[in-house]
Amino acid sequence: MPGLGASFGRGGATTFVQDLVNADCILIEGSNFAECHPVAFRFVMTAKERGATIIHVDPRYTRTSAAANLYAPIRSGTDIVFLGALINWVLTNERYFKEYVTAFTNAPYLVREDFQDTEDLDGLFSGWREAGTYDTSTWAFEMEEVPRFDGEGTVKVPMRDETLAHPRCVINVLRRHFSRYTPQMVEDVCGMPAATMEQIANLLADNSGRERTTAFAYAVGWTQHTVGVQYIRTAGILQTLLGNMGRPGGGIMALRGHANIQGATDIPTLYDLLPGYLPMPSTLRDEQTFAGYLKNATKPGWWSNAPKYITSLLKAYYGEAATPENDFCFEYLPQISGDYSVLPTQISMKDGNVKGYFVIGMNPASSGQNAELARAALERLEWMVVVDSYETETASFWRREGADPAKIGTEMFFLPCATVLEKDGTMVNTNRMLQFHDKAVQPAGDAKSDLYLIYQLGMRLKTLYANSTDPKDRPIRDLTWEYPHEDEHERQRGEPSAVKVLQEINGYKVEPGKRGYECEQVAAFADLKDDGSTACGAWIFSGVFPDKATNRARNRVKDDWTSLGWGFSWPANRRMLYNRASADPDGKPWSERKKYMYWDEEAKKWAGPDIPDFPATKDPRTPRKPGATGIDAHAGSDPFIMQPDGRMQIFAAGTLKDGPLPAHYEPMDSIVRNHVYGQQNNPALREFDRDDNRYNGPENPDFPYVLTTYRLTEHSGIMTRYVPWLAELQPALFVEIDPELAVLKGIKNGGWATIKTRVGEIEARALVSGRMRPLRLGKGQRVHQIGIPYNYGTLGYTSGDVVGDLIPLAMDPNVSIHEAKTLTCDIRPGRRASYGRTDVDAAVPVSQHTTAGESHAHGVDHGGDRG
Amino acid sequence: MANGFFTDTTLCIGCKACEVACKQWNQLPADGYEFSATSYDNTHELGGTTWRHVAFVEQAAPLDAPAADTKWLMMSDVCKHCTNAGCLEACPTGAIIRNEFEDVFIQPDICNGCGYCVPSCPFGVVDLIAPADYDAPRGFVSDGRTNDDATQHHGGIAGKCTLCYDRQKLGLTPACAKACPTESIQFGNVDELHARAKERVEALQARGVQAYLYGVDDNNTVGDLNAFFLLTDAPAAYNLPERPVLPSTRQRAGYTAAALTAAALALAGWAVLRSGD
Questions:
Q1: Within an 8 Å CB–CB cutoff, is residue A770 touching chain B?
Q2: Residue A185 contacts by C-beta under 8 Å, 6 or more apart in sequence?
Q3: Distance (Å) of CA A601 to CA A225, A606, A608, A631, A634
Q4: Å from A716 to nearest chain B CA?
Q5: What's the pLDDT score for residue A749?
Q6: ipTM beyond 0.85?
Q7: What are B249-274's pLDDT values in tens digits?
């Protein structure tokens, strides 16, 4: 998540859920914490019982709001205005933690003179190119030459004004940037009363500082926007100004939506990353050679170690074939030449440019955005493999309502897979914690573990190319692929060992003539080398398996707080990131009440309940060493070791594509014009304006209501719709509307309603509730917000229309995240006329209604088949 | 030593994990897939095959009032395991007993499905399980036996919370309390739970919360409830009786009235006969 990464250095939650009990105040925004993370929410409830104030800001009054001390409504898609106003309020009222900010952030740095802000350019930053991207060269600091630490010449470092007086100091640029974000603007744009915003501002400021800390929690309610990364940036800046980062009861809790979603970015299923957040080589940068790649990947700060990590990764991949002479087979790696994330791939598939598709742990036909486009795209494939525990809507796309199987040429393979209890393996939870789980029972029927399926696919490919002399087949031939299971019976079944996979992820010392699993483990990533003498599958997890007998992911010793004996959190089992910031620049706790990590003067090392996120014996008074390698250049008071200068980046110099500071832009589809700037949308966002992906556009009178989407406690998707006990709890797709709108549109509680966008229309049962309430924006504009849960599809004991059929594809420029949390729509009473599309002359014809009874019976039949 | 539940509604987040854990452990079937449009409650009430039920009480602020004034109360309801249990008194076969944990337990192999217990519960908890629902579930009988005569020839047998009798016998916490992520449902010795609950009420009242216990020291005929609740609104808001009454306590008045009526009729008859002389 670059939102956190650009600010602090790493793309993971900065704290752990168990520490929320130490917060004096918790702001939950962009998250329905209680409903979507009910087990972790116990720590919020405990904090509340201990006297913390819980604030929930959300378009809807949810089960989280019910448990909060204060609920504040907001128009979906306007959080940067609210958070920006809090930043402005904190700066204007001098309520920020000055000592913390001066010492730990780039607030004193001077921004270049030719940088122009959104204040100067009505919503644009300097460097805008009509081509649709920014030239980010002016988003940088004024540099000065200082002598190198060793006296040999000079190096350039950012100019600073420690008094924070200079007008081009970052903090003063920040003040000016957010000066128009006032409480009145919050009322006019967000629909939240100014008094409520100021009440929250006071609560946050009163509960931050030396003696007290505030934690923030967010989830995909903040990320799934065309300005999503900048939402997280705004929160990061605010939390830093309040001095809450790296401290107990503070931090930013990024709540992950699925069980292993953190793991899926750590060892990524993302097209542009290699394991451990190493960049994927790109033809768009000068990375065709190993030397070019290393030059780009190696950065000041911690990333000076990048050569060790990539070399060890290549050794893990290609074993003895990887030698210094052949650049460790660097050329085997694919090189990306554009955006191959999910949405552009979907579009490309629809246009006939994708031949084959593996769908594992995903269900684009029901949970994708513009899901009908996704389903239609599947028809253009030559083949598709779906791996799932259930037949999903994706696997059955060829017999969906309105489709003609005779006309679909896609060859379909469905591979049933084991559920979590039927296989060995690991998951990484929201605490960045790796936990190993053992197989409890054999999978039912033909089901196999995902590991088996991937492993056996690799084995078959290796057999296929075993005799090839073509150089392009060498990556498959040279791939190390040996994980013999410890158990004889499993080995006979062809099941690989998840333990040996984890051992390889941890890393080992290469020994000539020996297989990876026969070699000695490395103890930690500090042991990794760039000379090919070590191999490591993902450096951030190094340390989880320090010797063949110790699998720390199996550890299950708990205590009341950090529980270092439970599982293994990357990096190096640290539970709280940037925890050096829990002590003042001299290494003393900011206060006794908020004591965490501190410098032990006698032992000459960092001490406390956690693993220091800092060199363990680096004295806090160590001066900066300009020109030194890696974090040796940082001072003993620079806590953000992943950053080039060891500091939190309030001003993100050139790391993001849509601005060094966050600015409010309206969503792609919005009911209003941008009240803050002339610029309506994020200028750098990516859109796909085409017939099968049409936007409602700004202020479209045909679509006058705000639509937001979410998930329910009772359901995830296909997995829960096949569980009767969960299906009965929320047995139908419903749409939540406020009583005023219900009267206005003649929609009855419990009756049917049809929701429509320019992408499609769907039907749902109406749930009229005073928990939904109209907002009043500037000039008295009355705004109705509609909520609809995202869990339904055509299969299962309960079924319902696919909400993705309403959502056009539009992306944030940094991470290609879609915009599913804020849309516009129309709503009317009654049922839909057609399935999916509004343009009924398109591929999918008008079809008959499915009554609740019929669809129910349909679902039961399926359940019976599988039972 | 009575074991019971203390359900603290101020800690309930409405996740329904208790409902699911109960049905999963006791292998109770889903009751259907009907959308109710009543808040987030689609299982409506306790019944023969729903032994935990989370009630959702929406108290939305008027649209012109601050949004923060809205309340959404959640309460996980369950069999109260009354000290004076109406169902137990009404049972003619002895199927309903007070077990060694002092919980009210229906022995499924004794129950003949007469249904007398159903109207005798002051809380509307007990209900008959339809015979069709016997096929799927197994666990709600502790030893796998049911009264075949009742299940095959009559309207079914009575079902309600067993307080996880089978789990208790193994020293395990009942499934609902085990699954509750916020300790809204606490299981244990009732005396200890009472003490804990009273402290909790005091702490909440000190914070200005209008909290009280329901089913503890209430001067009524059902006596203390072994499954009692901490509430913040009137019992009626949670669909609980303000003052539950044990049906058998109405017997004296009922018989007296019947006897008086009979006596009056006899007197009247005698008078009529006499006047006819």
A1: yes
A2: A81, A85, A675, A676
A3: 47, 9, 13, 22, 20
A4: 13
A5: 97
A6: yes
A7: 888 888 899 999 999 999 999 999 88
B65 contact A CB<8A = no
Give residue-wise pLDDT tens across range B23-55.
999 989 899 999 999 999 999 999 999 999 999
Contact A767, B41 (CB under 8 A): no
Q: Radius of gyration of chain A from Cα atoms? A: 27
Strands (E) across A741-822 are located at: 752-756, 761-768, 775-776, 782-783, 785-789, 810-811
Interface test with A, best of B13, B18, B22, B196 (most A CBs within 10 A): B13
Grade residue A42 by pLDDT with cuts at 50, 70 and 90: very high
Q: Does B27 lie at the interface with A, CB-CB under 8 angstroms?
A: no
Nearest residue, CB atoms, A771 vs list B31, B58, B183: B58
> Collapsing DSSP states into helix, strand and coil, what is residue A515?
coil
Burial classification of residue A15, based on how many CB atoms lie within 10 Å of its CB (0-12 exposed, 13-18 middle, 19 or more buried): buried
CA distance B72 to chain A (A): 5
Cα–Cα distance measured from residue A283 to residue A296, given in angstroms and rounded to the nearest whole number: 12
CA distance A35 to chain B (A): 7
Residue B222 · residue B40 · CB < 8 Å: no
- Which residue in A has a C-alpha nearest to residue B72's C-alpha? A66
Distance, in angstroms, between B133 CA and closest chain A CA?
Answer: 14
C-alpha triplet A768, A773, A778: angle, nearest 5°: 145
Separation between Cα atoms, residue A346 and residue A116, nearest integer Å: 37
What per-residue confidence (pLDDT) applies to A216?
A: 98
Instruction: Report d(CA A182, CA A121) in Å as an integer.
Output: 19
Give pTM, 2 decimals. 0.93
CA–CA dist B227, A667 (Å, integer): 50
Given CB atoms, is B53 within the 8 Å cutoff of chain A?
no
Interface of A with B in 301-320 (CB under 8 A): none
Asked if B16 is an interface residue toward chain A (Cβ–Cβ < 8 A), one would say yes
Contact A583, A597 (CB under 8 A): yes
What is the mean predicted confidence (pLDDT) over A114-122?
A: 97
Report the sign of the C-alpha dihedral through residues A391, A396, A400, A405, in that order.
negative
Beta carbon pairs, A and B, within 8 Å: 120
3-state secondary structure A190-214: HCCCHHHHHHHHHHHHHCCCCCCCE
Binary contact (B182, A42; C-beta < 8 A)? yes
Angle between helices A194-206 and A79-92 (to 10 degrees): 60
Under 8 Å between Cβ of B70 and B60: yes
Question: What's the CA gap between B107 and A337, in Å, rounded?
Answer: 70
* Spatial separation of the C-alpha atoms in residues A347 and A354, rounded to whole Å: 10
By the 8 A CB rule, do A775 and A794 touch? Answer: no
ω into B131 cis (within 30 of 0): no
The answer, yes or no, to whether residue B232 has pLDDT greater than 50, is yes
Q: How long, in residues, is chain B? A: 277
**Chain A: closest CA distance from residue B15 (Å):** 6
What is the predicted pLDDT for the residue at A18? 97
Concatenating the DSSP letter of every residue in A57-76 gives: EESS--HHHHHSSEEEE--T
Residues near B199 by Cβ (< 8 Å), separated by ≥ 6?
none
Best residue of A54, A62, A63, A200 to probe chain B, by most B CBs closer than 10 Å = A63
For A731, the closest of B33, B67, B74 (CB atoms) is B33
Per the CB < 8 Å rule, is A41 touching B36? no
Partners of residue A749 in chain B, C-beta under 8 Å: 37
- pLDDT above 80: residue B144: no
Give A856's contacts in chain B (Cβ within 8 Å): 33
B53 sits in the region (left: phi over 0; alpha: psi -120 to 50; else beta) called beta
